[in-house]
Structures are given as structure tokens and as C-alpha cells.
Amino acid sequence: MNAGKGDKAGGTAEGKTRRRSIDTNQIYPTLKQRIINCELPPGEPIHEDEFAREFGTSRTPVRESLMQLRNDELVSIVPRKGTFVSQITVQNVYEVYQIR
What we know:
With 100 residues, the protein is mainly alpha-helical. It contains five helices and three strands. A three-stranded antiparallel sheet has the order 1-3-2.
């Protein structure tokens, strides 16, 4: 009987560990690729909480990834409005790949 309680408690701790295993280094390239491939079309709003659920993490790594994407000029962050996919030009894509 105690083993069941231990499993439940261990499962909870393990779940938290798994949840934190996704970080900016995994989210950023995934979102960048989706933007470049137009899976996230220009002008599309980006909701941190939806991506946090998708990646099984908190909003913090998603927010950090969005900041990197803003630096790449792939998203626009508008205060009190939200985050949106930027209009992508061939020059934007070229610059992003030059940085790599």
C-alpha cells in the first residue's frame, strides 16, 4: 500500500522534472522553423500560454524564445497588444541563417 503512495508522490516529482526539461534551446528553433515555413503566418498572434501547454513547460522559456525571435525580427512584441509574427522577407531569412 505504501508503495502506491510512493509511486504517486514519485510520479508527481517526475512530472515536474519532465515539465522543466523543455527549455528555450528547444522552443526557439521550433518556433523559428514554423515562422520561416509559414506554419505561423505573418500577422498571426502568438499566445505564450498555448505554446507553454504544447511544449509542456511554463511561459518563461516561451517568453525567452519570443525575445530571441524578436531580436531576429521574426516576431513583433507590441506592448498591451501582444506578440505577432512579423512579415518575413527573403532578406530576413538570409540574415537569420547568416547568424547561424
